[in-house]
Amino acid sequence: MSFSAPVRPVTGTYTGSGVSQDIALGFQPIAIWVHSLTATTSNRNGGFKSEQMSGNTSMNHDGTALSAGITLTATGFTVDSGNQFNWSPNTYIFTAWRG
User: What is the pLDDT along the chain (99 residues), one digit of tens a residue?
Assistant: First the structure.
């Protein structure tokens, strides 16, 4: 019997820029949770993305699907321009899970 390696989350922060930006992790995540530490309105406070969600489709914290947001990449993730994952100058905290 074999067991897969344990899932190890990685945490970090980034600053929203308002333009699309890559967040480098050094691995392809299977899921990302993002939350704004400085958002003043609920539509800018973050959400969730998993590998089962196609393209840049994401969900906000209340489970509403978003048509723009986060794209998982081979080396981390990309946050789209001017959405709730990338408002300037909000500070965001994230947790990324590797497969």
Answer: 444 666 689 999 999 999 999 999 999 999 999 999 987 766 668 899 999 998 888 988 888 888 778 999 999 999 998 678 998 888 999 999 998
d(C-alpha 39, C-alpha 32), whole Å: 18
Residue type, 64: T
pTM: 0.87
For 11, residues 6+ apart whose C-beta sits below 8 A from its C-beta are 93, 94, 95, 96
Could you tell me the end-to-end alpha-carbon distance of the chain, in angstroms, rounded to an integer? 19
Residue 24: partners with Cβ closer than 8 Å, 6 or more residues away: 75, 76
Q: Where in the chain are the domains?
A: 9-98
What is the distance between the alpha carbons of residues 54 and 31, in angstroms, rounded to a whole number?
12
CA-based R_g, the chain, Å: 13
